[in-house]
Amino acid sequence: MATSKKGVLLMNLGSPDSTEVKDVKKYLDQFLMDERVIDKPWLTRVLLVKGIIVPFRAPKSAEAYKTIWTTEGSPLVVLTKELKQALQNEIEEPVEIGMRYGNPSPEAGFEALLSRQPDLEEVIAIPLYPHYAMSSFETAVEYTKEIHKKKNYSFKLTFIKPFYNETNYIHALAENMKPFVSKQFDHLLFSYHGVPGRHIRKSDITGSHCLLSDNCCEVNSSAHKYCYRHQVITTTKLVTEQLNIPKSKFSISFQSRLGKGWLTPFTDIRLKEMPAEGIKNLLVVCPAFVSDCLETLEEIAERGKEIFMEAGGETYEMIPCLNTNPLWVNTLAGYVQTVKNGKSDMVLS
Question: What is the pTM of this model?
Answer without folding.
Answer: 0.96
